[in-house]
Amino acid sequence: MKRIIECVPNFSEGRDKVKIDSIVGAIEAAGGVKILDVDPGEATNRTVVTFTGEPEAVCEAAFQGVRKAAEVIDMRSHHGAHPRSGACDVLPLIPVAGITLEECAELSRALARRIYEELGIPCCCYEAAAYTPERKNLAVCRAGEYEGLPERMADPVRKPDFGPGVFNDTVARCGMSNVGARNFLIAVNFNLNTTSVRRAMAVAFDVREKGRKAREGGSLTGKVLKDENGKDIWIPGTLKGCKAIGWYIDEYGIAQVSMNITDTTVTPLHVAFEEVCRAAAARGLRVTGTEIVGLVPEKTLVDAGKHFLAKQQRSLGISKDEIIRMAVKSMSLDDLKPFNPREKVIEYLMEDEEELAAKERLVRMTARGFARETASESAAPGGGSVSAYMGSLGAALATMVANLSAHKRGWDDRWKEFSDVAEKGQEVMETLLALVDEDTAAFNRIMDVFSMPKGTEEEKAARAAALESATLYAAQVPLKTMEASLKALPLALEMARSGNPASASDAGVAALAATAALRGAELNVRINAASLKDKSTAAPLLERASSIVSEAKALEAEILETVNRNITL
């Protein structure tokens, strides 16, 4: 697996486009990284840049971004609503694939050392990269902000992990950077129907994990209560893994609860949204919308969409795009500006569009286009791709019946039963759609073998081995189509038995399409298995294919018997 990390540096400039572009340009010019998002904020005077790549490339790009920020940003004249301590204020490395959080922590420490040694900018290491337990908390590292650096630089306890020990000209201009490693964090602002920062702060204190200091009489202004050791007593908030403050955004003319969700497994975005709504309402306020800063994982929005659908007792077995649209509307993610998932979801931005278009060439065609492509003189797409497409339509029909049944008047108490079927159907349908193009790719792999050289004995051997491997793959792909199409049949049976009676014929067509798909795929398994030199490899494929056909015939007969019984006059 390729090692991929994400870097989300926050630069203390959100208003000067020329400066922002120069920083982003320096990151991109380092090479080997993909810029996913640039999110400037005028009121905060801060820009969040998100980019990904392999570890070495990301670290180099991050360093070049810090270097450029040091050239164009002078912290002596910086003002903004967001806490900050440096031109590059925070610089986290985040594991995405093939790398651990601990490895990212080591990379962060090395990057912090390099930033100080080559640029003279002091650095604190935070979260997983922290050298001391208290510095795991970014707020501790940034305490006092830029204005507190003169005193901090000379303090042996609070001094940066890498720094000169004095407040020199470089520190005065560039401030201090906080370099760390963490898991994925969601930065989100909840818009309130108030201009009061004090009220927004009160809501933030209600919900953030740290909570607020306990005061006499439970008031917000009374004397702070102490424990037996003389330390402040804290009342924890309601949301684990969340940090929050309240502020006023002049750009929008509203106050917000600004939150970092540091552990989405404990507190998903939709849970935070609903709890902030509750806490705001308890103080006479209303959350009017949600603003996501930077990017979010696809799962965050899918989980949110499913949560709100379930609250409405609506089927969850709909397309991913529809589920995400439900999340956008439910949390008013488009309250302040349009919300385009293609620009905010990290997985979508990491996709290589050209590579994806080539991989999904057939399924991106219209029905007419696919039919005409199949009817052309080329050998592919052929029966294997057509079988996978038929199977996807069978699964789609079973899903449709489930969704219609979930919404049938008088069956409201059964919505979950049908929603579960629809979710399974969506999964089977997507699997089969992917196999439409994979089957053609398998055929092309065999064709590629014939262009290999075959002059020497070594070349002949390599060609024979490649042909055997490609032929095996060409037999395995239609077997996957058979397996997936078989999964559609129990769903069709369940809908024939208990689904909306008005859609009984659709359940029957679903069964016929799925059965035709796997019968057609079986022919492709057999013709490719017959070409294998190693018959011991071919035998298990043929046995499994035969078993699937037998099982499918029995299910198809039962489904059609049920359907015919339901539609007989």
Features:
569 residues; alpha+beta; Formiminotransferase-cyclodeaminase, Chain B, domain 1; Alpha-Beta Plaits; Four Helix Bundle (Hemerythrin (Met), subunit A); 3 domains; four-stranded antiparallel sheet; 53% helix
Tell me briefly what this model is.
The protein is α+β, with helices and mostly antiparallel strands. Helices cover 53% and strands 14% of the residues.
Any chance you could write out the topology, listing elements then pairs?
Blueprint lengths: L3 E4 L2 E2 L5 H13 L3 E9 L4 E8 L1 H18 L15 E10 L3 H19 L3 E5 L10 H5 L6 H5 L15 H6 L2 E5 L4 E7 L4 H11 L4 E2 L20 E2 L6 E8 L4 E8 L7 H14 L4 E7 L4 H14 L8 H11 L10 H4 L1 H5 L2 H7 L7 H9 L7 H24 L8 H35 L7 H42 L5 H26 L5 H33 L2
Parallel strand pairs: 5-7, 6-7
Antiparallel strand pairs: 1-4, 1-5, 2-4, 2-5, 3-4, 8-12, 8-13, 9-10, 11-12
Helix pairs in contact: 1-2, 2-3, 7-8, 9-10, 15-16, 15-17, 15-18, 16-17, 17-18, 17-19, 18-19
